[in-house]
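Session log. Operator J.P. requested a structure for one protein chain; no other inputs attached. Running the standard single-chain path with token output.
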Amino acid sequence: MTQTKPVRRRGTPDFQLLILTLLLVGFGVIMVFSSSSSVALLNEKYNNDALYFAKRQAGFAVLGLFVMLVAMNIRMEKYKKLFVPLFFVTVLLLILVLFMSKLNGAKSWFNLGLFGVQPTELAKISIILYLSALIAKKGEKFRDLRTGYIPVMVIVGFVAGLIMLQPDLGSCFILVATCGLIIYTGGASLKHIVGSVLLFVLGAGIVFGAGSLLSSLTPDDQPGGGTNYKVGRIEAFLDPKKDQQGSGYNLLQSLRAIGEGGVTGSGFGQGIVKLHYLPNPFNDFIFSVIGEELGFIGTTVFLLLYLYFIWRGMLVALRCHDSFGTLVGTGIMGLIAIQAFINIGGVTQTIPMTGVTLPFISYGGSSLLVMMLSMGIMLSISRENSRQGIQERTTGVQIRTQTPSTPFERKRANRSR
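Structure written below.
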């Protein structure tokens, strides 16, 4: 009897996910142009060039496309080896950035002249890879509190602590929430997760209270002339009209922009609130510009596209036969979903504002490059799924790279028996 040789093809990427990524990036460049052209045109700092921000974002998009294609062609086995050096480089950058000068009240950037680098963005993907590899390696031992769960939480707490020292509350919350999703997907005990959430809430309360006390003692060090901007954001969320020219101004302008969009919107490039009323319209508040110019219909279409994009990515992750790939894919798509919710929720008064970007849409090189790198990894996972599917159909043997360790893998294994 002849033995069929194993198929060594890499497989094809998920073209739906690839096209959706390119659509979001392209739409982001267009909206950056619409929201920034008037600001750049009237400012000598930007050479009175209406295309200043759009050209830079397009440049980052092209570079990001190259990064995505490279990442897409790296096998998942390679990522299992790359996570250690990437993680330690990230930790080193998070430590070094604390010695930089403050920008908008936080030490979050390396100023490289023509552009800035934000190591917190790199930390998001590196912690996803590190945790996924660690949990996949531990397998069922991860459910043990002392040898499995606590070491993972120490790593999460260490990285989150470095980000809080900048301070960057929004990015810290996104990272912790993403790690929580990975830990849950990895099969951690529910009582351990509940205990960690309670400790996180307690720790955040202590840090927040201590920060408020220190800011009251050193008012000149805070942006806005001594006002504690974290407390101001919460007060603005609860009642933005209480301080309409202060802490509530940004939120009121955001809500005004969305409200004036109506059903059909004012039309592309025809928004009014972005004209020096709405701060950073091409960054934190770009969703408000979308709401004003595209209206309820356009915003709904955009959100449905975004939701389908996230769903498609999650489907790719859950189809992966390897627990490492499942955890990485779940973490990446969870990161995008959480950050998008925090951005949109903040500018619509659903939650307090934290000043994070809308993935793929907001202006920002570091964020866009890391997001496209993440999608390259997702496409690599989809290629691995395709390759394994081809090999299963060719040999008639189901492939499993290791013993199922996550709840999703155990359910899938039970159904196949």
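Operator note: Residues 286-318 form the longest helix (33 residues).
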